[in-house]
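Revision sheet: C-alpha cells.
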Amino acid sequence: MKLGQIKSNGSVVAAIFEDTTHARPIPDYSMFDLVERLGVEGGDLKTLASRLATAHVVETTPLIPISPREVWGAGCTYEISSSFRDAEHGTREGFYRAVFEGGRPELFFKGTARIAVGPGQPIGIREDSTFTAPEPELAVLIGAKGQILGYTVSNDVSAWDIEKENPLYLPQSKTFTGCAAIGPYFVTPDELGDVYNLEMTCTIKRGDVTTFEGSTNTSKLGRKIEDLIGYLLRSNQVPSGTVLQTGTGIIVTQESALAAGDIVSITVPQIGTLSNPAAIV
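Predicted:
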C-alpha cells in the first residue's frame, strides 16, 4: 500500500494512493494521526488505513507524506560514501572507512518537520556553502515501538564543503532550511518486496541540461536497516512518526554542486520519484 498526504476540503489529510495522481482520502486524519492511533491500538498501518479511508477516489497531488516529529540521518553506510569522503576531505587515512566498517554506525539529527519538505517543494542551498549537494537515500517511517511502518525516497541535502572544512562542523553541514526532502509517499513493507534489492537513480537538471546522473542499488547498503534503528533507539526514545534516512550510495561531486533553480529527481521504481527545485536559503 502507498500512503501519503493530500489536500482535501481545505485540509491536509492522509490518503491511500491508487497511482501517482489518484488517491482515497482518510478524512480527519493526517499521517501522523494515523501513526499515533496505531501506537495506541496496535495492528498494522495498512489495515488501519483501509478501514478509515473513503471508497471514492479523487484526482490529487501528493504532499509531504508526513510532518515528521524528527528526522535522523545515517552516514557512511555505503562503501563509496566512506571512500569518497576520505579522499575528498583529506582526513587521516581510513577515518570515514572506519565508520563504514565499525560496529557502531554514524547517526545524526537532521531536525524536525521545520526542515523537511515534500515533492515539488524547494530544497535548500546554504548561502554560506559553495558545495551543497543532494544525497539520494532510502528512508523509513518509524512507529511507536521502533517498527518500520513504511519506506520512502529521501534527499539528505548536505553542504559538503562545510563538513570538509572540519568534520566537527557536521551539524551545520546537515541541518538547515529545506535540508530533508521525503516522498512522494510511503510504501508498506509487504508491498515493497526485497528492501536490499532496490535500484535508485538520481538526476540533476539545469534547464534542459542534465548536470548529473547517478545510480546505486540498496544491495550495497553496508548495514541492516533494523540495526540502524536499534542503535538510534539506544537510550534515545525517538517519537513515533520519526523518519530515518539510511545513507547514500550516489556521490555528487563538486562539478555538479547545486545551483538555484536546479531540479533534483530521485527515483526508486517500487516507490516513485521525488523531485524538488533547489533554492538558496
